[in-house]
C-alpha cells in the first residue's frame, strides 16, 4: 500500500544503513564520546556557520523538547508556545512533567504572533501581581510548524527582538527543519536561523535518519552538566555512535539538503495533483505536509488505496486530511495517488 | 584496538542489520503499531511462557527504568533498591526526577538481602510514624546485577514472598538478561523469572541489538494509558518498528540465547586466561562482566593494547578493573588479551 | 486607612482568637490527630450532610489545590480548568510542578461552559491520536469563581453529568465558599454542593480564619496515604490543632454562615453605593468581590483614601478595579467609601 | 496529662497571642509585604549580625526544606545529607518530589563527618563516570540534629571549607535553632552560624511560635523570583503578616533566646532526674531532646502518666524513648515526671 500518512513511515536513507553496516564492528566508547559523533558535530558546526556551536544528539523529538526546555528554564519559569505547538498538544504533558507550564497563545496558521506575545509580556511585567504567576522564560516555535507553515525571516527577527527585550530564550523545534530549508518559500538559511535563535534542533527522524535529533546551542549557552541532564531525562543513548554515524552521513555531501529538496519536489507535485483534480486546500502549506478538504465519501474511497492522516472535522460536514511527502516519496507513489484521487 | 570496555561498544548482530535493510522501505504506521512489533510481542510472549504477557518496547535502560517505576508507583511510594543498583547510582537521578525516592539498602555482592528488607518493612509498618515517610511500593533488582552476580531461584522466591506479604511490586532490570540466563550458574529459566516478578525487561542494547529494551508485564498489571506514560517520559519512538524488527530478529531461531551463550563462553575463557596468569578476582561473577585486581603498573600496561573499565580503587593501592565479554567478542579478541596481560 | 483590597487583609474572627487563647496550653499530639481536629471534622460532616465525608485540613489555597489535584490524578492525566481559574493563572505553576497539565478552556464570566468541555471530550476520545496527549482526569472549578460569579445548580449538574460520562473527578475550589453560599443568588446548599462534586474545600483563610482550608472528600474517594501525600507537598502542619480549633469555631453556632452573610450584606451595600454614584459595573458579581469601571483620575483619587485592587486595563483607556467586602467589613468602612467615591 | 512528647504540643508564647490580638484588625497587604514582616526582617538581620541578610518567612519545616533546596539546586544536582536527616527520613519524599536526589551518608550521632563527605567528593569528581550520576550541589545539616546533637564550630568550619572547595551550598535546618544556641555546649553564636553557612532557617514552630520558619540568605544568594518559587511550592501564606507578627515578637527583647534558654534549663533538670534515678542515656544530647533507655515495663508504667515518644527498639529487648523539653515546659511538669519515673 502507498502511504502519505507521515514522514516517519519507512526506515532510513540507504546511505545511512550502509554506514551503519560498514562501522558495525568498530569498537568505540559509549554515550557520544566516539569519533563518529565528533565528526558529525564538526560537520554540523560548519553547516550552521558557527565554529563555536555546541552540538548534542538525542533520539526523538519529545525527548529533545523536554530535555532542552527543562535544561534551560529556571525553576520559576514557563515556556511560551502556540496552542498548536507540539509541546502544547502532542507530547502527553512531557513539558509539564518537568515542572514547567506551557503558556499557550492562539496560533495563526500554526504560528505565534510576536505582537500578541509582546502585548502580553508588557502587561505581565508591568503588573506586580506577576509575583504569583509563572514567569515566561522561553519562546518555543517549530519551524516548519505543525501546520507546515514557515516563519519568515522578518517574523523570526521580531521574535528574536522580543526575546532580547524580555531576556527570553528562543528555541526552535526543527523536527522537520530540512523540509523548511528546502522549501521555495524559505527566506532564511540554516546559518541565519542558527544566528536568530538561542538553541534549535535539526530533525533526523523525519528527514532521512532511523531516528535522532541534533540539538545546537549557538550562543555559548549550553546548560552546565548537560550530559547529566540528558541522562536524567532518560535520553542518553548507550551506543551514541548510532546518532553520530547518522548525522555524519546526513551532513556529508549535502545529503540532508538533497533529500529534503527531493521531498519538497514531491510535495509540490502532490499538491499540484490535488489542485488539478479540484480539491481545496485546508491550509496553504509551503512544506512537505499538505492539507486538503474532502467529503467523507472521498476520504473513504482514497483511504482504500492510499494511507493519509485525518486532520480535522469541519463544520460543514467535510473534513481536512493530511498528505505528507518525505525524502522517501517517489514518482510511483505520486502516480498511484493521482490515479486514486 | 581490542576492547572489553563494555557490552555496548559495537553495533548490532548482522542478522538485525540485515532485517533493517530488508524492511527499510516497507511503509508502516508509527509508535509501535506495526506488524514487526506485533510479531516480536508474540514471540516474546511465547519465550516467556505467558500468552497474556503484555510487551512494550523502549529505547534504553534508564528510560525504561524511570518509565516503569513512575508508571507503577503511586504518588506516595518509593522504590527499594541496592545502593549499587543502576537506579541508585548511575542514572543521574532520573528516578527522583519522576518524584519518587530510591530507598537504598546495602548491597551484598550487588544484591539485596531479603531478610534485611523484611526487617525494615516489618519495623516500618509497625511504627505509626510512617505517616511521615516514603511508603515502599516496589522492589527493584537487576538480574544480572551491576556486579555480574545472579540472584538464585531461592533468593528470587524470598523477594517474591516479601513483595506479596507487603503488597510490593517486584521489578527486574534485565539490561543483561541474556547473559544471566545463559550463565552456567543460572538456576532459573526465562518463564520462571517472568512468573516470579511483576514486571521485567529483556535487554537488547547490551545483548545484540543496536538499542532497545522489551518490557514485559506478566500479571495483567500494565498501567492504564501506558503509551501516554511512555510518551510523557520522552520514550515513544516514532519509528517504533525499529524496536519490533530488532526484537523479532532476536527472538527468531533462539538468536537471543545463542548470542548470549556465545558471550558466556567467551567470558569463561577470558576468566580462565586471567586466573591462569595469576590475577586475582575482585568479584566472583558468573556472568559476562569479570572483575580482576591489578596494580597501577599492570593496568597501564594492559591499557595500551586493550580497553577495559576502571571499577574501584582498593585500599592497598591496587585497583579493580572490569573486562566485559559480549555477543560480539571473538577468539581473536581473547588471543590478543592473553598476549597482553 | 480603609481597605477593600481583598478578603485576607485582617486577622481572624475574635471567636477564633479567643479559642486559640483558651486552648493554648492544652497538650495535644501533632499533625491533626488531636481532639479539636476531630471535633471540627464531625461538625463539618454534619454541615455538609454526609456522615461519611472525609475531612482534612490544609493551610492555604494553592497548597490545597496542588495536593488534591496531584493526589487524585493519575500520572497520565491533566486537569481541565477555565483560563481564568486560580490554578491556571495565579499559582506560579504549582499544578504543573506536580507534573500535570492544566488544560485551559475559555472562561465565560469566569466559568467553564459544560457544552464546550463536552464537545472537546467527545472529540478527544474519538480520535485515536489521544494516545499522544494528556488525558483529562479532572474538572476544576472555583465556586465562587475568581470573578465572583456562581455556577447555578443546573450548571453544576451539567458538569457532574459530564464528569460521570467521562469518568472525571469534579473538584470545587471553595476558597470563598461561604460568600457563595450566603449570596442571594446561590441556588445550591452546602449539602447539595457536596453531593454534586467529588471533592471540594471550605475556605477559611478568606472567610474568618487566620488561615486554613478544609478539604472534603464526599464519595469514599480519599487517596490512600493522603497524610503522606500532604506531607510530600510540604502541607502537614505540625500543630495541626490550629486548623482544628479554627474550623471547630467556624462550624459552631453557624458562625461560618453568619459571617459570610454579614460580608454579603456589606457587599450589597457597597455595590449600591457605587451604582448610586453612577459607576458602571465591570462584572455583575453576586458575591463579595465587586468590580467597577473607573477613569485613571477616579482611581487615583479614590486610592488616596481607600485601598482596592487593580483588575484590568480596558481598551477605552479606563480600568476595572475590584472592591472586596469580607466578614470584617463594617458600616464605618462603607461610610468612608461612600464619602470618598 | 503531662507531655514531653515533642516541642510542638502546645500553642504559642503568650506574647505572640497578645500581639496577634492587638493587631487583629489592622488592615495590611498580603503575602509578606506588610510592616510586621518588614519589622521582623530588620530585627532578624540585626540578630544575625548581617545587615544585608535576606529574610523570608515560611510556614513549616518540610515546606521550607523543599523550597530552599529546590530553589537553590540546579537541575542536575542533589543534596548531601546524613541518613538520619529530616529530609532523608521524615518528609515523605518531599525533596525527591522536587526532582532532586538526597545523597545519604551514614550519620555519626546524627551528624555528617566532613572527612567522609570529602573522600566521596574527591573520588566523585576524579571519576569521569560522574557524567552519569547526580552531581552534589548542596550539603544539608540540621543544627541541632534530629538526635539533639550539635556540630561544633570546628566541625561547621570543616563543612564550610569543603563546600567552598567543591562549590557546594551549605544549608542549615534550624527547626530547633534556639535550643542549640541556648545550649551550654554550643560554641557558635547566631552571627557565626549565619556567616558559616549560605542559607539557614530560624525555627519558630518548635520554639515559641504557633508556626513559622524564617529563612535567612546570608551571601546575597537568594534565588531570583524566590516569592514565585515559594508560591510554586504552595508555601506563600496569604496573611503573611501572621509570620511577621510572630517573628517580630520573638525577636523583640530577646524573647527567642530567653524562651530557648528556659527550655534548656528544663532539659538539664529533666536529664538530671533521669540520671539520678539510674536511667541510662541512649544518646548524649546537649539540647532539648533527651533520650533514655528503658525496659518495656518501665515504658508502659511511665506512659500511663507522662507522654513521650518511642525512638528505637534495642537489640537487647529494651528500647530508647525520647523526652522533649520546650519553651512551655515548667517545674510542675518536671515534678510529675520525677514522681512518675
Description:
Chain A is an alpha/beta fold and 341 residues long. Chain A has two domains: 88 residues, Aspartate Aminotransferase, domain 1 (Alpha-Beta Complex); 242 residues, Aspartate Aminotransferase, domain 2 (3-Layer(aba) Sandwich). In chain A, the strands form three sheets. The first copy, chain A, has a seven-stranded mixed sheet, sandwiched between helices. In chain A, strands 9-10-13-12 form a four-stranded antiparallel sheet. The longest helix of chain A has 22 residues. The two termini of chain A are 15 Å apart. In chain A, 59% of the residues are buried. Chains in contact: A-B, A-C, A-D, B-C, B-D, C-D. Chains A and B meet through strand 1, helix 1, helix 3 and helix 10 of A and strand 1, helix 1, helix 3 and helix 10 of B.
Got a strand count of chain A?
13
Please identify the top-level CATH class of the largest domain in chain A: Alpha Beta
Helical run tally of chain A: 14
Q: How many individual domains of chain A?
A: 2
Give a short overview:
Four copies of one chain form a homotetramer. Chain A is of the alpha/beta class and 341 residues long. Chain A has 14 helices and 13 strands.
Main attributes?
homotetramer, 341 residues, alpha/beta, Aspartate Aminotransferase, domain 1, Aspartate Aminotransferase, domain 2, 2 domains, 7-stranded mixed beta sheet, 4-stranded antiparallel beta sheet, 13 strands
Amino acid at each position: 500500500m502507498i502511504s502519505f500518512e507521515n514522514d516517519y513511515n519507512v526506515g532510513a536513507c540507504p546511505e545511512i544503513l550502509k554506514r551503519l553496516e560498514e562501522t558495525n564492528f568498530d569498537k568505540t566508547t559509549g554515550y557520544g564520546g566516539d569519533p563518529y559523533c565528533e565528526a558529525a558535530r564538526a560537520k554540523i558546526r560548519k553547516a550552521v556557520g558557527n565554529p563555536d556551536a555546541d552540538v548534542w544528539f538525542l533520539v526523538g523529538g519529545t525527548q529533545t523538547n523536554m530535555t532542552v526546555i527543562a535544561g534551560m528554564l529556571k525553576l520559576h519559569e514557563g515556556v511560551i508556545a502556540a496552542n498548536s505547538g507540539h509541546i502544547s498538544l502532542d507530547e502527553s504533558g512531557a513539558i509539564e512533567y518537568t515542572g514547567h507550564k506551557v503558556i499557550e497563545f492562539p496560533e495563526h496558521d500554526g504560528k505565534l504572533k510576536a505582537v500578541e506575545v509582546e502585548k502580553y509580556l508588557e502587561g505581565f511585567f508591568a503588573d506586580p501581581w506577576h509575583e504569583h504567576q509563572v514567569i515566561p522564560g522561553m519562546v518555543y516555535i517549530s519551524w516548519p510548524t505543525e501546520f507546515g507553515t514557515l516563519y519568515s525571516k522578518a517574523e523570526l527577527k521580531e521574535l528574536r527582538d522580543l526575546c532580547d527585550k524580555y531576556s527570553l530564550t528562543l528555541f526552535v523545534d526543527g523536527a522537520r527543519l530540512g523540509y523548511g530549508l528546502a522549501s521555495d518559500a524559505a527566506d532564511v538559511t540554516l546559518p541565519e536561523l542558527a544566528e536568530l535563535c538561542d538553541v534549535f534542533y535539526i530533525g533526523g527522524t523525519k528527514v532521512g535518519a532511523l531516528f535522532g535529533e541534533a540539538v545546537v546551542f549557538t550562543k555559548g549557552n549550553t546548560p552546565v552538566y548537560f550530559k547529566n541532564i540528558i541522562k536524567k531525562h532518560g535520553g542518553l543513548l548507550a551506543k551514541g555512535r548510532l546518532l553520530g554515524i547518522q548525522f555524519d552521513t546526513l551532513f556529508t555531501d549535502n545529503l540532508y539538503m538533497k533529500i529534503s529538496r527531493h521531498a519538497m519536489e514531491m510535495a509540490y507535485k502532490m499538491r499540484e495533483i490535488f489542485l488539478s483534480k479540484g480539491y481545496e486546500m485546508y491550509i496553504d502549506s509551503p512544506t512537505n505536509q499538505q492539507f486538503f478538504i474532502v467529503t467523507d465519501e472521498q476520504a473513504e474511497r482514497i483511504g482504500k488505496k492510499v494511507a493519509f492522516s485525518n486532520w480535522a472535522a469541519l463544520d460543514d460536514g467535510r473534513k481536512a486530511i493530511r498528505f505528507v511527502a518525505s525524502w522517501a516519496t517517489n514518482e510511483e507513489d505520486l502516480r498511484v495517488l493521482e490515479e486514486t484521487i
